[in-house]
Amino acid sequence: MSRSRGDLIIRILGIVFFTIGVLEFLALLIACAVSLVRAADFPPWPVFLFVLLHGGILGGAGLSILLARAHAARRKARLLAEGTPVLARVVDVEQDWSVRVNGRCAWRVVCEWEEGGTVYRFRSERLWEYPALNNEYVAVYRDPADPKCYYVDVEGSCRPVVEL
Question: Using CA atoms, how far apart are residues 47 and 143, in angstroms rounded to an integer?
Answer without folding.
Answer: 50
